[in-house]
Amino acid sequence: MGGQYRITGDKYPRLRRPKRRRRLVLAVVASATALGLVGWGTLQLIDVFTGDEDQAAAAGPKADCASRVSPSPKASGSAGKSGKAGASAKGFPAPGKITVNVLNATPRAGLAKDTADELKKRGFRIGNVGNATKEYDKKVKDAAILLGAKAAEGAALQVLNTQLTGARQKTDGRTKATEVDLIIGTGFKALSKRKDADKALADLTSPKPTPSTTKTC
After folding, report:
1. How far apart are CA 67 and CA 217, in angstroms?
2. Where is the composition biased (Low complexity) (predicted)?
């Protein structure tokens, strides 16, 4: 090269990056770092505010694991085809322990005997069979009057009442709770059908279901 200046020696000047470019790179790195810190901080805040809910959700099944009360299966009726039922937990007497006096208060002849025979087939003990006394003769408009001691009101009279519909219960001064009168009235047609009477007796004498506690998890 010609000219006034010449380069001599084996060392050359080192080229350096402009200061503006270096500052730009540093600014980009700083921005990225700041964004990372902001994101990390946001995640930490989310964990702080939602951590309890997550724990509650995780503990949810245990919290819901409560004991539930459900009725135990209902005991089956104790009355069978013979109509004889054992004494229930409620204290109702069995038909075989109840003496029924069948009295006819209607003009229909033979009604007391036919009814007594059917009750005997259903397991009841039969006492007197005949016409009603003057107090009730032709004066009972209901299907029947079931008459017994005060103590029979929630016991023997209830059992006998399962054998027919439309009867009216009444008490008197007698003391024997297992001897009752069936006074047939003009509204009487027949005893209930055997299967219906057996079901009614079973529903009356069977113990009600008792609640039992079971866990659901």
Report:
1. 9
2. 70-90
**In angstroms, rounded to a whole number, what is the distance separating the alpha carbons of residues 148 and 61?**
59
Helices (H), the chain: 19-64, 111-121, 156-161, 194-205
- Give the whole-angstrom CA distance, residue 75 versus residue 191: 26
User: Per-residue confidence of the chain (217 residues) as pLDDT tens digits?
Assistant: 455 555 555 555 555 555 566 676 677 667 777 676 666 666 665 665 565 555 545 455 554 555 565 555 444 444 444 444 444 446 899 999 999 999 999 999 999 999 999 999 999 999 999 999 999 999 999 999 999 999 999 999 999 999 999 999 999 999 999 999 999 999 999 999 999 999 999 999 886 666 665 555 5
Q: Which two tokens mark 68?
A: 């539930």
Residues in the chain: 217
Task: Collect all residues with Cβ–Cβ distance below 8 Å to 181 and sequence separation of at least 6.
Answer: 100, 101, 103, 145, 146, 147, 148
Residue 172, phi then psi, degrees to nearest 5: -135, -165
Q: Please give the single-letter amino acid code of residue 84.
A: K
Question: 76: Cβ–Cβ under 8 A, 6 or more apart, which residues?
Answer: 202, 206
Query: Which residues, 6 or more positions from 28, have their beta carbon under 8 angstroms from its beta carbon?
Result: none
Of 135, 127, 108, 217, which is closest to residue 181 (Cα–Cα)?
Answer: 127
Nearest to 98 by CA among 189, 205, 9: 205
Q: Return the biggest CA–CA distance within the chain.
A: 164
